[in-house]
Design goal:
The chain has 436 residues and is an alpha/beta fold. It has 14 helices and 16 strands. The chain has helices at residues 13-24, 26-33, 64-69, 85-95, 105-122, 138-145, 160-172, 176-185, 194-197, 200-214, 233-241, 303-319, 366-376, 407-418; strands at residues 4-9, 37-43, 59-61, 75-78, 99-102, 126-127, 151-157, 224-225, 244-255, 258-269, 281-288, 292-299, 351-361, 381-386, 395-406, 423-432. Strands 7, 8, 9, 10, 11, 12, 13, 14, 15 and 16 form a 10-stranded mixed β-sheet that branches. The protein starts with a strand and ends with a strand.
Length: 436
């Protein structure tokens, strides 16, 4: 049987890793797929750039359109990133009747609905395991392994850069800016780290996971994001003293009123396994009604970790080349005509617990004013801790832990507290989840 020919768009870190894995494990992969798989055509912006892979036997071009239009290519692997040229190439490949494998989370999160509709019409597959959590097979786990469950909620550390920064702040007491600079030197963070530290990258991935978990269309524009740039060493230390750790989590929960879709710094009990996922590693916790809580852990990025997921998708596509398109695993886990219209909840309607840190004048009556506001807003206090007064400062740090309350009520309470004359500056807020 003739080998299946792959067209590769992009020969960067993941592209090079994909070439290496396919070549090194060619025999093993062929035994699993039922046919041999070869990369016959590949594109790269700079053909003279040193590579981490051997491109011998691969036809190279700097024009990705040549790869997509090559009649011998059966599967196009898109690893160029972004959502402009990548989108054009993916849609062109689908129009040409070619299957697509991509690691592009932004493309799937923002344009996936249109891409999957086009693929469905053409009878081709679009596989995207590598778009979320690198080498962790989380999409396959939710879409197939947990197909018998009603997914109740999921929570994940799905950005390694943010996790590295928070780990260093906790373990070494370092400031955010200092650790971010090191992350950039080590190549974990881009020169412009906005997508990582503000939660946008994680929101792309969470959008995909939530769609597969609950059978709703992809709705990235409705995801709530809050970054880690305002997390201080004090917050990290106070959380530790209280028995919690701060993680930048993507959280999605099914509720009677809709789906929560949110990325933000979160206090979680230090006893939770996911609280002990450190450095650049990723982990996703998924709660199903039948199986209970399941945890998936591994490398969220890297040449061969991500290539592992890319190659697994290629194998899946090869296995189904001759199968009836109507009987393939649906892109978003549920049959296309069975997607739910359950809405994405606005953040104001989400209910969670809170860690609050504020600076108040150390004088009688101030604490009573603050707790009075909480009482009027129906917010129950779990714990209050007053820290030592900093030398030369009339204000003392006060930490509140609250019970679960709707975000709308907390927004109003914080606004009223910040308006008090005795309060210095803004109230720092970090949401708290038990993940039990």
């Amino acid at each position: 049987m003739e080998p299946v020919k792959i067209g590769l768009l992009g020969l960067g870190t993941v592209g090079g890793g994909t070439v290496n894995v396919l070549k090194r494990n060619a025999e093993e992969i062929a035994r699993r797929a039922g046919r041999s798989i070869v990369i016959s055509h590949a594109s790269a912006r700079n053909l003279n750039k040193p590579r981490i892979c051997d491109t011998t036997g691969i036809k190279l071009t700097n024009d990705p359109r040549e790869v997509v239009e090559d009649p011998e290519v059966q599967i196009v692997v898109e690893l160029i990133g972004g959502d402009t040229l990548a989108s054009e190439m993916v849609m062109r490949a689908i129009a040409n009747g070619k299957h697509v494998v991509t690691a592009n989370k932004a493309l799937i999160a923002k344009q996936g609905n249109e891409i999957f509709a086009a693929a469905q019409k053409q009878g081709v597959m679009v596989a995207f395991e590598a778009a979320v959590a690198g080498g962790i097979p989380i999409i396959k786990a939710i879409r197939e392994g947990l197909a018998g469950n009603k997914i109740e909620w999921l929570a994940g550390i799905i950005n390694g850069t943010g996790n590295f920064i928070l780990t260093e702040m906790r373990e070494k007491g370092r400031a955010f800016a200092d650790v971010l600079a090191e992350a950039q030197r080590l190549g974990y963070a881009e020169a412009d780290p906005t997508f990582d530290v503000e939660g946008i990258d994680a929101a792309h991935k969470l959008t995909i996971l939530a769609s597969i978990a609950y059978g709703v269309p992809l709705q990235f524009d409705k995801a709530y994001t809050d970054g880690i740039t305002k997390i201080t060493r004090d917050d990290v230390a106070y959380a530790e003293q209280l028995g919690y750790r701060i993680k930048h989590l993507g959280i999605s929960r099914r509720t009677p009123n809709g789906i929560e879709l949110r990325v933000h710094p979160t206090l979680i009990p230090e006893s939770r396994l996911i609280a002990n996922v450190n450095g650049v590693m990723n982990a996703v916790l998924v709660k199903g009604d039948a199986v209970g809580a399941t945890l998936y852990y591994g490398a969220g990025a890297g040449a061969e970790a991500t290539a592992s997921a890319v190659v697994a998708d290629i194998v899946d596509v090869v296995r189904t080349l001759t199968s009836d398109p109507e009987n393939r695993v649906p892109h978003l886990a549920f049959q296309p005509n069975q997607l739910s219209n359950l809405p994405i909840l606005p953040m104001e309607e989400v209910e969670t617990a809170y860690y609050l840190r504020l600076h108040a004048l150390d004088k009688p009556g101030v604490l009573a004013d603050i707790t009075g506001i909480f009482g009027e807003m129906g917010i129950s206090i779990e714990a209050i801790i007053q820290k030592e007064q900093p030398e030369g400062d009339q204000h003392v740090p006060i930490i509140f832990l609250t019970q679960r309350v709707q975000e709308r009520a907390m927004n109003s309470a914080i606004e009223r507290i910040e308006a008090l004359d005795a309060i210095d500056g803004q109230v720092a807020r970090i949401r708290l989840e038990m993940l039990g």
